[in-house]
Amino acid sequence: MTTLTLSNDTLAALPETIARPSYDRRALTPGIVHIGLGNFHRAHQSWYLHRLMQQGEAQDWAILGAGVRPYDAAMRTRLLAQDCLTTLIELSPDTTSAEVVGSMIDYLPIEDGNGALIAAMARPEIRIVALTVTEGGYYQDPVAGGFDLAHADIQHDITTPNAPRTAFGAIVAALGQRRASGTGPFTVQSCDNLQGNGDITRQTVLGLARAVDAELADWIAANCTFPNSMVDCIVPATGPAEIAKAAEMGVADQAPVTHEPFRQWVIEDSFCAGRPDWDKVGATFTDAVHAYETMKIRILNAGHQVIANAGELLSCATIADCMEDADIRSLFEKVETEEIAPYVHAVPEITPEAYVALIASRFSNPAIRDTTRRVAFDGSSRHTGFVLPILRDALVANASIDGLALVEALWARMCAGTREDGSEIAANDPKWQELQTAAHAAKSAPSAWLRQADYYGDIAQDARFAERFCHWLSVIWTNGTRAALQAYARS
Fold it and tell me: Which CATH number fits domain 4-287: 3.40.50.720, 1.10.10.10, 3.10.28.10, 3.40.50.620?
């Protein structure tokens, strides 16, 4: 098969099996700036907009990509070289299909001070600024909650508001320009896996704005909107295998994205300057976002953390491999059913129990090479955000916490940096050094892990949790991960 380099000029010549934009990309005008152009955004939000454009709508809502970290520059180079097009490869257990998405039309320069980003967001045609900056990117205090005003990045933006370092500093600067020029507000839309992501985004933006200019903060509070949302699609990282898969299908794409055959986007309808009609292509607008996001974050995102550390320790390369391992799958099913689902309410379409079964099926899709390492990455944010809130609820209810204690013990063991077969686990967390120090101390004194107040806070003082955690970590170190999983299954 001839392989064509992806670009506007080659779209028409791509193999007929690859869907491509039917709209005139040259006629698109921007309406959205999206900060954080990772795989998830391109497989999810960008796809919804593309599908709407395929219906002849939303031609004035095209995306300008943006980033605020030096490493974003490499993605910018790759995407600009192919006219900001992305090949999405859908992987079902027994079929594969591809589609080229064209809803993004430019990628702003990555530069110190974020001048180009601020200028773009100040343009009147930009009505939504969206973000996928990871769960840990919102400058929240991990224990006390609320905006972390003392963070070094935030302090930089307070002292240098016209040349900020963070996405939020750039947003505040752009809104300051819009207020001064009379352009008006825009919606700030988080697309990250955070409970109440819109509320947290509002807290961060207003917290920073108030430290810079109290009157501007009042204007933002009165005029801008920050809708809560729930986003869902399993999207593995891209590597040589994914690039090769695209080439096998006939397209040379340096940034293709593979994804599962499932998407969900539930959004609070609160957009101060208008929005695309995403509901016409499957998104759900509702005032009950919280119930959907609780179900997804607790059963899917926490479920990922339930199995990922055990998978790392037992050398399971992917999440599907984890689910193929009988002991890890048993851990998933028991913890989800007994210790997570009781703290999730049904939504109109599905019960918690049915959702657990759905997630088990999705995790088991062997075509999705979602690496265990990727899912285990940044446990310091993901355990804090996904697992520990469930543990708190279970402790308040005086209910079972044995499986959740085991999950935390598996994380502690994983952070020691070696698998059961003796191979090294490379640094896999922004706070890896501190975590590894605590993990090694906990080998002989398990409670040392719980003294990490940034994560556990008052939970560590709960005698019932502390006892079960110390029990399981001792079992893991003495008898091994598999023995601990099997003992839990029998309990």
Answer: 3.40.50.720
